[in-house]
Structure formats: C-alpha cells, structure tokens
Design a protein that fits this description.
metal ion binding, elongated, single chain, 4 helices, SQR/QFR_C/D, 121 residues, mainly alpha, heme, cell membrane, 3 helical TM bundles of succinate and fumarate reductases, cell inner membrane
Length: 121
C-alpha cells in the first residue's frame, strides 16, 4: 500500500511560520505607520527646524523609547521578509543557512547601532 501523503492523514512538515509571522508583519507595519505619522505631526507642528529642534525631540525619553521599539519592529519585519525570500528562492541548504545567519548578524548589528545613536542624543 502506497503512502501518497494526500488526505487527512498526510504528513505536514515545515517551520509553520505562516499566521504568526503574517500577523507580526502586519503589527510591525502598523507600528511603523503610527511612528511615521507621529514624526510627521511633530515636524509639521514644530517651529524649530534646526538640528537643535530635532535633537530636542529625540532627547525626550518617551520619543527615544518609541523610536527604539519602532526600530526593533522594523528589524523584525525585515527579518521575516528576508527570511522568506531566502527560504523561497535559495534552494541549497548550506547557502540559505549562511545567508540567514548573515542576515541575523546584520540586523543585530543595526539594532545595537540604532540604540547607540538614540541614546547618544
């Protein structure tokens, strides 16, 4: 008797990223839109369009935290998207794993650099 993996008893394998990561990308996308609108409103209602004005905005603790959370959301959003590209289009497992590890290291380095910039203001 042949096992053709069709029907209710089929063997389902894979990472099962689907819904969780789809939802995570939507939530991080919404977070980035809210941050962009907040930044735009701050820009349009502000009167000091100099470096000091922007530094004053980013010197506020709540704005630093909001920026950091948004950047971490951006990095996770990017990870999900790039990981899916690697999984869909890079078939050799070793190359795909190397690219995924390089992507993780790059995004972690970007996160550390972003925090350093935010808290240096």
């Amino acid at each position: 008797m042949a096992n053709n993996n069709i029907g209710p008893k089929r063997l389902v394998v894979g990472a099962h990223y689907g819904l969780k990561d789809w939802l995570a990308q939507r939530m991080t996308g919404i977070l980035m839109v809210i941050y962009t609108v907040t930044l735009l409103v701050s820009f349009l209602t502000g009167s000091n369009f100099s470096y000091e004005g922007w530094a004053g905005l980013f010197a506020q603790q709540w704005f630093k935290l909001f920026s950091a959370v948004t950047l971490f959301g951006l990095f996770y959003h990017a990870w999900v998207g790039v990981r899916d590209i690697w999984m869909d289009y890079v078939k050799p497992v070793g190359l795909r794993l190397t690219l995924q590890i390089a992507t993780i290291f790059w995004l972690i380095a970007c996160a550390f650099y972003a925090v350093q910039i935010l808290w240096s203001v």
